[in-house]
Amino acid sequence: xxxxxxxxRERILQAARQAYAVHGIDVPITTVARRAGVGAxxxxxxxxxxxxxxxxxxxxxxxxxxAVLEEALEDPDPWRxxxxxxxxxxxxxxxxxxxxxxxxxxxxxxxxYDREHSRAxxxxxxxxxxxxxxxRLRDDFDPTDITLVLLANSGTVGESQxxxxxxxxxxxxxxxxxxxxxxxxxxxxxxxxxxHQIHKLSPRRDRPTAGAEV
Amino acid sequence: xxxxxxxxRERILQAARQAYAVHGIDVPITTVARRAGVGAxxxxxxxxxxxxxxxxxxxxxxxxxxAVLEEALEDPDPWRxxxxxxxxxxxxxxxxxxxxxxxxxxxxxxxxYDREHSRAxxxxxxxxxxxxxxxRLRDDFDPTDITLVLLANSGTVGESQxxxxxxxxxxxxxxxxxxxxxxxxxxxxxxxxxxHQIHKLSPRRDRPTAGAEV
Lengths: 214, 214
Hints:
2 copies of one chain form a homodimer. Chain A is about 65% helix and about 0% strand.
């Protein structure tokens, strides 16, 4: 790729990340192009589909998630590792609207679910098992509960980053306490959820969208 | 009102409720009119604004919420009353996409927030205090945590009613356990949330919406 093409590509990605973080992934492609200072044709040459742009724009954050999980797996205290994954991923979700959407995306092509999600699921399952073996995570915690946390946390993501983060932190602190071993009461059965299935729950037409008028 | 006008009004409301339950409140008004078998002009004569139609369509469900709260306040066991409010309202939220949206609506006119919400908040605050006094609800439970539950629960509402309800029930069972007295670890501080503020968290542009394409 020539230097000016690389430069344009980088500008487009940066503009996309900023726009997604503030407005979510529904931002029109033309807005991203305008913010990047390139024409729509240039944008399409680099990213022929919306999914390609989203995947690339969030590659860094997905890498961060993977790193968070790997760090947790290296923690000698598996419960602390487990808590740090939930904490950090939920905080990322609460502060970047675009990230949430990419995670919850209805476009199966937007992210390489098969590879990334099965990798994440395996690592999480290992962490969950270790935290149970250590006697800190309750035995009836189900791997699908990780998805449940992400879904519940997505509900706290709103207009204000400040409020979203505070709500997310409070929710996570409640949930982590309820995940600890030592609770005697039975839970409702696990829901049929998986990281693979998250995007199938969308679209959420029950959410009012801007400009929805009679 | 003449009999045929009353009849039309009822048909419009029924069509609106059905459409909202399945597709959420973003359903076009023209779709509601078509389902009701009336013209758009007739619909507008009865409900001059989108907000008026939403308010009227959900009046019954809001009344049910009020009844749930009143029943709970009459329960001699305030903790059981508290749990039943959380259980029932979350189940309503999980099974009716339109209801969620009306609750989380960004249209302050859609519901009489001032009256309904301050009434709900007072009743809930009383129930919370009684459950604390009974030694069952943890002392650091904050009234804003009710809103937190509704927000978190809204995150479980997706395409499939079956999956949504299972996810909601599982989440609620975790949260109710974490709300019980006897947890020693401190929580993250309460988030600045209130039933009054829920609608301000919307619109959630981070949610992919149907038909959002390049």
